[in-house]
Write a structure and sequence with these properties.
Blueprint lengths: L8 H15 L2 H17 L12 H6 L8 E4 L7 H7 L3 E6 L2 H10 L5 E7 L2 E8 L2 E5 L14 E7 L10 H11 E13 L14 H8 L3 E12 L2 H5 L4 E11 L2
Helix pairs in contact: 1-2
Bound molecules: S-adenosylmethionine.
Length: 252
């Protein structure tokens, strides 16, 4: 990987995490990733947060089966959770930064009941409001028992791209396990010249989507457009990214 110019302390820390990923040491690795995102939330470096439902989610929603069980991985405080619940779905998010979840419930004036859930050595706090719950913990350790059964549709916007490349396969295997056969993933990802700068967001181009999902999912590209890069990316010579929306259907 090229060393980008003008990296922040957080970026250097994240790259260190990548090295750890290769060396091993799972516990420390997870804690450092959590610390990285926790600092981003504390410092309000949350340019990814939209504040309105994603236009491609709204456009693709007619494909969602009515009253689906929907999983939103790495959900942050996205308003998509509330928008999907308001369409009549049962929505489950997962996020490991506690303050992001607190912001979400406060900003939507939702009062949550919290319960502890454990399965397969992983533990979560589950914050529940009518039609909507958010699991606080590592999305990479989720299993169907923890989300209360098979999921009909997964909405991944800025989630796969937020994970370091070494975690991708494990994440995709986990999504496959959570989905019912014939279930769907609405995937929204970004692609750019990865040699110019390290993520997150990490570049996920069409061939990468094919190699991660192609064997077990039918892939339909719904939309592609240019998206302005954030200031850090612009400074590294990435003025824009390609944003891609795919509808994936589990084959088996
Ligand atoms: C780029 S943001 C996207 C948030 C949301 N999907 C959106 O569109 O606004 C990624 C989020 O994933 C969270 N996150 C990163 N790795 C995670 C993990 N392994 N488990 C749970 N949450 C994670 C971060 O704290 C952050 O809020």
């Amino acid at each position: 990987m090229k060393i980008p110019v003008g990296r922040s302390e957080l970026n250097r820390k994240f790259e260190f995490v990548q090295n750890w990923t290769r060396v091993g040491g799972f516990r420390l690795k997870t804690d450092m990733k959590h610390e990285f995102w926790n600092e981003r939330w504390q410092q309000r470096h949350i340019g990814f947060h939209l504040g309105h439902p994603h236009d491609w989610l709204v456009a693709a929603h007619e494909r969602f089966p009515a009253a689906s069980r929907i999983y939103v991985p790495l959900c942050g405080k996205t308003v998509d959770l509330v928008w999907l619940r308001d369409q009549g779905h049962d929505v489950i998010g997962c996020e490991f930064v506690a303050s992001a979840i607190q912001d979400f419930f406060r900003e939507h004036e939702l009062s949550a009941q919290t319960e502890h859930r454990e399965s397969g050595g992983a533990s979560y706090e589950c914050h529940r409001a009518p039609g909507l719950s958010v699991l606080q913990g590592d999305a990479l350790n989720l299993n169907p028992e923890l989300v209360g059964g098979a999921i009909d549709v997964i909405f991944d916007r800025a989630a796969l791209v937020a994970l370091d490349p070494a975690s991708r396969q494990r994440y995709v295997d986990g999504l496959h396990r959570l989905l019912r056969p014939g279930g769907h993933i609405l995937l929204i990802a970004f692609a750019y010249d990865q040699s110019r700068i390290a993520g997150p967001p990490w570049s996920i181009d069409a061939p990468t989507i094919e190699s991660l999902f192609g064997e077990r999912f039918a892939i339909e590209t719904l939309a592609v457009r240019a998206e302005e890069g954030n200031p850090r990316f612009q400074a590294a010579g990435v003025p824009e990214m390609e944003e891609r929306c795919c509808w994936l259907t589990r084959k088996d």
